[in-house]
Amino acid sequence: MKNEFAAIIERDGEWYIAFCPEIPEANGQGKTKDEARESLAEAIGLILEDRRSEP
Fold first, then answer.
1. Which residues have CB under 8 Å from 11's CB, separation 6+?
2. Distances in Å between the alpha carbon of 53 and those of 11, 15, 47?
3. What pLDDT, on the 0 to 100 scale, is given for residue 2?
4. The pTM is what?
5. CA 38, CA 41: separation in Å to the nearest integer?
């Protein structure tokens, strides 16, 4: 199953910060936009996995 979420990526000094409006607690960071997006995708995956395991 594939989920699609919006990603907002902003530059903060030397870092890129990414967050997802649909999942407020999901965020990522990286030295490049791609690293920030990948970090965010990993965070979203972990959050969804955790939610699925809740009773």
1. 17
2. 34, 33, 10
3. 79
4. 0.88
5. 5
The residue count for the chain: 55
What does the alpha-carbon distance between residue 42 and residue 14 come to, in Å, rounded to a whole number?
21
What is the CB neighbour count within 10 angstroms for residue 30?
Answer: 17
Contact 21, 8 (CB under 8 A): yes
- 23-26 long-range contacts, CB within 8 A, separation 24+: 23/47, 23/48
Residues 19, 39: Cα–Cα separation, whole Å? 10
State whether residue 17 is helix, strand or coil: strand
pLDDT digits (tens, 9 = 90+) for 20-48: 999 989 999 999 999 999 999 999 999 99
